[in-house]
Specification:
372 residues; alpha+beta; Beta Polymerase, domain 2
């Protein structure tokens, strides 16, 4: 039995980047041998085991054969006679097809180290075409490593375009695609992910409105602004989709099974960011109505995320900044409670009185700004 560190840990170690998790391949062993050593089997489709102490994943060396469509259309064979080189050959990119033994020596049968030096994302073998999810994964790796100067090899981009032309992205499980999109959105240069997918003609299949180059560019500009604001995932997604119409954005979110909280913020931004940019000329009543439409008094965290989307979107050259204005109006109005209105009021009258008091507080701020 021989055990090797593989994949991302080897790659990022050679790139002098932090290693967040470690994956291991076991060569020359059977499932029973690992079970006897105290490992716990967790893989259903192929033998993957958890180490009894570290809980890191150890997979038996395996080969794969394409038997059907999509991500799950593979037949795996794991046996004691599968070599390390055979296991590495099934991987997507050469930089992910390296291993390290317990002495620290790098096993690199497919030129991953050379491609790291050349800053290339290059497929390992023609078997790359068997898994359409690799199109999206390569785009994500391009976004992750663009700051280091990595580019996609011409022959790999050619394969990606051929796969897209055959409509193979339609075979993907939506949850897997969203997983890749969400991870890409959290990179330092997520716009590269969407640019790569656009270059291989895959983006218009995943998000059809982005076939419009001008709309795509505007959307990526807003996304870059969200990154500059160090915005969380939901804000980045809403910033990307901000300039789609609500129907198209909703279709994308439902098709990709985007989490409900993210979907809500996307649609909230599409429907209301324009009103924020018009805020400097709005009346106190209109401002209060907007805050209520945004459910800002009950869902303050979501409201702050919404403001971040509006800030990323920009769109107004007026001073003072409308996003800051709305934040100030909200903070002031939030201070109003039932204790600030006539204590003899009951039922709906209390809510109406709170509304009037909030509108009056907002009006005071408006008048103070006009007089300054």
């Amino acid at each position: 039995m021989q055990i090797y560190l593989v994949g991302g840990a080897v790659r990022d170690g050679l790139l002098n980047l932090p290693v967040s998790e470690k994956d291991w391949v076991v060569v020359g062993a059977s499932p029973q041998e690992l079970l006897d050593a105290g490992f716990k089997q967790v893989g259903r489709d192929f033998p993957v085991f958890l180490h009894p102490q570290s809980k890191e994943e150890y997979a038996l060396a395996r080969t794969e054969r394409k038997t059907g469509k999509g991500y799950t259309g593979f037949e795996c064979f794991a046996g004691a006679d599968v070599s390390l080189e055979e296991d590495l050959k099934r991987r997507d990119l050469t930089i992910n097809a390296m291993a390290q033994d317990d002495s620290g020596a790098i096993i690199d049968p497919y030129g991953g180290r050379q491609d790291i030096e050349a800053k290339l994302l290059r497929h390992v073998s023609p078997a790359f075409e068997e898994d359409p999810l690799r199109i999206v994964r390569v785009a994500r790796f391009a976004a992750r490593y663009r700051h280091l100067g990595f580019q996609i090899a011409a022959e790999t981009m050619h394969l990606m375009r051929s796969m897209v032309a055959r409509q193979e992205l339609d075979e993907l499980v939506p949850e897997r695609v969203w997983q890749e999109i969400s991870r890409a959105l959290c990179e330092s240069q997520p716009q590269v992910f969407f640019t790569v997918l656009s270059q291989c003609k895959g983006l218009e299949q995943l998000i059809p409105p982005f076939a419009d180059g001008a709309l795509l560019q505007r959307s990526l500009d807003v996304l870059r602004n969200a990154v500059d604001l160090q915005a969380p995932l939901a804000v980045r997604c809403a910033s990307l989709l901000r300039h789609l119409d609500a129907k198209s954005a909703g279709q994308f979110c439902r098709r990709m099974k985007v989490p409900k909280a993210v979907q809500d913020l996307v649609l909230l931004a599409i429907e209301n960011c324009g009103s924020v940019h018009d805020l400097p000329d709005a009346s106190a009543g209109k401002i209060l109505s907007l805050l209520e439409d945004l459910d800002a008094f009950r869902r303050a965290r979501r409201f702050q995320d919404f403001l971040l989307v509006c800030a990323a979107d920009g769109g107004s050259e007026t001073a003072p900044d409308p996003v800051s204005l709305l934040r100030n109006y909200h903070q002031a109005a939030m201070q109003v409670s039932a204790e600030d209105v006539d204590e003899t009021l009951q039922g709906k009258a209390v809510g109406a009185a709170i509304q009037r008091r909030r509108a009056a507080v907002i009006q005071q701020i408006i008048e103070g700004q006009a007089g300054s």
